[in-house]
């Protein structure tokens, strides 16, 4: 939270980037990274460069339109690189940039912790629902 | 990703929890944790127990309804504990559970990395927009 805002930001020049402030552009990037599809797309690309349809299969449930929007937002933020190969038929690969890799690693740490903790989460849900007579 | 599904899950009993599978309950918990307000709420509670209105001020831009829904989802997942004090007027505190703390720490690692990386993100956006003649 130490870096001052310096370029094209909506926050004041004196303020550090702060996701808690609604006008801070870091909140938008956090949403790209952790949004419904952004996190899974970064996670999938952490496994290696992928073509669009490969990503669509890996990110189970995403529509073509949403994956396309997600990739554009991540590319604009400098986290994903789009590489069009001059082949016939043309081939487009998506891969993480170095910063995208660092973001994906931190996100995957969180994801793996949640996956490992799911038995505890499911037990908590059951207790919560039973206390409210939902069962 | 090692723990087998064991309780009330929609995935098969033989499969590990996997956020990439759309039916896996871990994907829902990931969304509670990283959703538009869930992440900021966990981050705010990492600073200490808070009352509802304190949280509402800290999570700049959240509505009363959305904060209430967010807290219920996190409480049901066992990440937030709701403590009603028997005072007059009644007072309700929200605080992280031990697992909620561990989740919040991993999430804050990601958030701080993004905040520190924002100059790079803003530069990438400028390059992207200029290449597309948007300026």
From TrEMBL, chains A, B:
Keywords recorded for this protein, A-Z: DNA-binding, Transcription, Transcription regulation
Pfam entry (one): HxlR
Domain HTH hxlR-type: 24-122
Entry annotated with the keyword Zinc-finger: no
Stored InterPro entries: HTH_HxlR, WH-like_DNA-bd_sf, WH_DNA-bd_sf
Protein name: Transcriptional regulator
Organism: Streptomyces bambusae
